[in-house]
Amino acid sequence: xxxxxxxxxxxGGGPAGYAxxxxxxxxxxxxxxxxxxxxxxxxxxxxxxxxxxxxKSAELIHSIKKSEEFGIKVGSVDYxxxxxxxxxxxxxxxxxxxxxxxxxKNKVEYIVGKAHVDDAKTVSIVExxxxxxxxxxxxxxxxxxxxxxxLPFLQDSERIMTSREALVxxxxxxxxxxxxxxxxxxxxxYFLNAFGTEVTILEVMDQLVPVEDEEIAKTLGREFKKQxxxxxxxxxxxxxxxxxxxxKLVYEKxxxxxxxxxxxxxxxxxxxAFLDGAVNPSLNLxxxxxxxxxxxxxxxxxxxxxxxxDIIGPPWLAHVATFEAVQAVNGIFGAAKPRRVKNFPGATYxxxxxxxxxxxxxxAKEQKLDYKVGKFPFVASGKAVAGAHSExxxxxxxxxxxxxxxxxHIIGRDATELITEYCLAMEMEGTIDEIHGTIHAHxxxxxxxxxxxxxxxxxxxxx
Length: 463
Hints:
By secondary structure, the protein is an alpha/beta fold.
């Protein structure tokens, strides 16, 4: 017999789960959110937020090293690696408390424990202080997310980490191999390199950040090389061995085995669905590659059970998860017609930053689209040059006939902030002419967005 009845029970309290619970609370519904770790989930506690705190420290020391360019001389610069890690944990803690406050504000019952979906109307708490409690729900939303993928031949060790362990490393390694060059991999590469760690990236594909445009990847490779980050591309890591002082890796490059010994290894090879023990197998929820399958209303094949966020598959992005969760709740309670994700930004916070949306030029060619390209380099931006961060460019892909934006790719300072203008334009089916025709403040980095649009017609003023 269930103890309490709810309009909605959310299983998982990450960017999808807490957003769903808060949105349901805003709609005046009785809602509970069950999270086995802490409000905010992996993103807030072990991913997006604490990693950005670390990257801010890296950005600061990077700027200090360049201070003489601005006529400012500093003495020797020291740092406390432990305090850098500690600050990032403090930031995560502060933000988690913020989510807990929002739960109270919106009258969401927050339960710390492991949930188990017994059937389409019941959720049990199977671990934690509330163990044994049963929640009766008119609707259930599963948002248990993902966990870091591990390579089977790498042993569990303090020296061999996923991003979660890397965020709380007690000691800075003198050398590190980072397996994988997606957003997580290149962000850790930048962070550790900024503080003097010898970094080697091992990537199975032929370019860094494989999901990004090829020109973006090549530019990042050149910038990383300048920073002293080594990138081994098109290699396959085959084996590992713990040594007295670190880890010995064996990887295949052009048919030959290469050995690399480092003090530590970070695995950044993607994620896998996390549903472990969360659902009664007899429910037979439909999955593909272990991810839950949902319809346009985010409902699974079992009526009354919904899912949103990473657990329904890519793109595995916090902002996408939040969007999906809000859409799902709006649909469940008739607040608005739910929408599935179409256009979304990708953001990578290394240095230089990378941001993108829509198709790459390679994809446009593969799809045989009739397109045009406009580009503008930040070296021609007065704001970028004045700030001594003129590396990178803006690249815009548009329909050759209509001018509608098909894709946008930025590498450079504050790229992750700039990309939203293009996302909004795509959402509104805007054109390059409308971007070009909008007056952008001078001097700003955002002028590059208008200039790239203008360059499509060879009308850019500053190149």
